[in-house]
Design goal:
This protein is mostly helical. The chain has a single domain, classed as Alpha-Beta Complex (Aspartate Aminotransferase, domain 1). It contains 5 helices and 2 strands; from the N terminus they run ααββααα. A two-stranded antiparallel sheet has the order 1-2. The longest helix is centred in the middle third of the chain and has 16 residues. It is globular and about 45 Å long.
Length: about 120
């Protein structure tokens, strides 16, 4: 892998561009903190700048959205020590489908209430 990255430095630009595109397509009421291809979603309208910023409600909303996302083919890591990152294998269509799945699964859009 390191040999590949050395031979193809454009991979870093690809990761940056596609991760930024995915994070820009977030749902209403979702704050995204991102560095390079690593990102974290928070179900809150305000900025998340420290450990106390995300509320317990935000953590519950993230857990509530994980199953609907998985049902739509998107696996989201919920462990706080493991941040999602954008792998180079994902395509522009993967970004579109992931963003759409996140909008549909967001507890803020009524998807959870509709499921019962």
């Amino acid at each position: 892998m390191l040999r590949y990255l050395k031979a193809h430095p454009e991979t870093y630009d690809l990761l940056e561009t596609r991760a930024a595109a995915l994070c820009r397509r977030g749902a209403r009421g979702v704050t995204v903190n991102r560095v390079g291809s690593m990102f974290t979603f928070f179900f809150t309208n305000g900025p998340v700048t420290d450990y106390e910023s995300p509320s317990a409600a935000t953590r519950r909303a993230l857990r509530a959205s994980s199953r609907p996302l998985l049902e739509r083919g998107v696996y989201l890591r919920l462990r706080s020590s493991k941040r999602p990152s954008y792998p180079a294998a994902h395509t522009e269509d993967d970004i579109r489908r992931t963003a759409e799945a996140a909008r549909q699964a967001s507890p803020l859009n009524g998807a959870q209430q509709a499921r019962g």
